[in-house]
Amino acid sequence: MHYFDNSATTRVCPEAAQAALEAMTGTFGNPSSTHTLGREAKKLLDQSRKQVADALGCTPGELVFTSCGSESDNWAILGGAEAMKRRGGHIISSPVEHDAVRKSLEELEARGFTVTRLKPEKDGSVSPEAVRAALQEDTVLVTLMLVNNETGGVTDIAGVSRVLKESGSPALLHTDAVQAFLKVPFSAKSLGADLISVSGHKIHAPKGIGALYLRKGLRLKPYILGGAQEEGRRAGTEAMPQIAAFAAAAALGKAGLAENGARMAAQKQQLIDRLSRELPELRYIPSDAPHILSISLPGWRSEVLMNFLEAREIYVSKSSACKKGGRSHVLEAVGLDAKTIDGALRIGLSRYTDQEDLDALCQGLKDARAMLAHR
Questions:
Q1: In whole angstroms, what is the distance from residue 67 CA to residue 71 CA?
Q2: By C-alpha distance, which of 187, 189, 190, 161 is closest to 174?
Q3: Main-chain dihedrals φ then ψ at residue 88, nearest 5 degrees
Q4: Distance CA 196, CA 66 (A)
Q5: Would you state the pLDDT for residue 349?
Q6: DSSP character string of 48-91
Q7: How far, in Å, CA of 45 to CA of 174, rounded?
Q8: What is the DSSP letter of 321?
Q9: Does an H or E element contain 173, and which?
Q10: What local confidence, expressed as pLDDT, does residue 43 receive?
Q11: For strand 172-176 and strand 139-143, is the pairing parallel, antiparallel, or unpaired?
Q12: What is the maximum span of the chain, computed from C-alpha positions, in angstroms?
């Protein structure tokens, strides 16, 4: 099997799987219970929070565990806007955000907020100067993706933070960093964002676990009501197996960040060079993220190419998995023509991607083109 859909989800690493198993079969107490088993679980919870916080570059108290990146996005955007509504009702974002952000913004518009969606650059990033030009006196929230999940374009969130400070804007800054976490170097401190969304299943942890960074001193109304878990910020018994696995994956990801990033960047460039040479009609979107490559063979349908590759156990996608086959709003927003979009494929690399995988993908695309050209 040759897996290139890592931007949709990654395989769970053995260390994360083992951590989850041990939490399920050993440290299985409820962290809120006061007996010995509960205290053991609480110790594991605290240790896990510290590991994820260390990987994100924040204090453990600034990190709240959630069920996924989408929940983190929803809570940050809906909660952030509501917390700031007395100061205004204007929000800045872009048309290339994940649907968890886009649909949250649509909900806020239905509540009376106004949203300015900035035109992205050709790689799907948004410039700090575009944010500066769009700022209004009543701007209360800016939400922009750090690494675009389809193109790999990297937005200068630290630059956006500086723009807000220089402008004297009170607006909260949120970034969906799900595709950036432990793929490109950053920390909560270096970004300067008030709210940062991350997810476990993009870094070789299981699905069903994410986190939201809330800058110290920032309080949002709880998104889920009930018990006093997560210091009263998110109710519900903590998902300890997923949390322990998330922590194990985060620790590994932090330790190998530089090495894995350099290897994926080299693999990405190798794909660009080889595919451009062997498939002259190939188009691709240059981008700075090391692990995401958006390519297109205009004239060939994405679905046909994907089916051909899948028959060889080569797995790619054509856009975000959340689109479930729909046309990419991201590629439309960056200005690609319909023919290019309809032939687009998204290649996602991981630390498990090797030379055999790269060779299989290149040969598979070359064979697909040859077969389709003779039909």
A1: 6
A2: 161
A3: 155, 180
A4: 12
A5: 98
A6: HHHHHHHHHTS-GGGEEEES-HHHHHHIIIIIHHHHHGGG--EE
A7: 25
A8: G
A9: strand 172-176
A10: 97
A11: parallel
A12: 71
Determine the Cα–Cα distance for residues 112 and 18; give it in Å rounded to an integer: 47
The whole-number pLDDT of residue 69 equals 97
Active-site residue identified among 58, 68, 322, 362: 322
Q: What is the pLDDT of residues 291-337, one digit of tens each?
A: 999 999 998 899 999 999 999 999 999 865 455 556 789 999 999 99
Nearest to 163 by CA among 142, 132, 141, 189: 132
**How far apart, in whole angstroms, are the C-alpha atoms of residue 365 and residue 97?**
29
- In the chain, CATH 3.40.640.10 covers 14-255
What is the structure's pLDDT at 326? 64
Which residues, given as ranges, of the chain have pLDDT below 50? 321
CA dist., res. 59 & res. 159, Å (int):
22
- The amino acid sitting at 265 is A
Q: Which tokens hold the place of 21?
A: 């198993």
- Assess contact for 8 and 348: CB atoms under 8 A: yes
Query: For the domain 2-10+256-373, what is the CATH superfamily, name and number?
Result: Aspartate Aminotransferase, domain 1 (3.90.1150.10)
Q: Report the CATH number of the 14-255 domain.
A: 3.40.640.10
> DSSP of 322-338, one letter per residue?
GGTTPPPHHHHHTT--H
Dig out the tokens for 82 from the structure: 């509501």
- 299-328 burial: b if 16+ Cβ within 10 Å, else e: ebebeebbebbeeeebbbbbbbeeeeeeeb
68 is catalytic: no
> Residue 280 — φ and ψ, nearest 5°?
-55, -30
* Residue 284 tokens, joined: 């691709």
**What confidence score (pLDDT) does residue 144 get?**
98
What's the pLDDT at 327? 72
Contact 242, 205 (CB under 8 A): yes
How would you classify the pairing of strands 344-348 and 63-66?
A: unpaired
Contact residues for 277 (Cβ-Cβ < 8 A; gap 6+): none
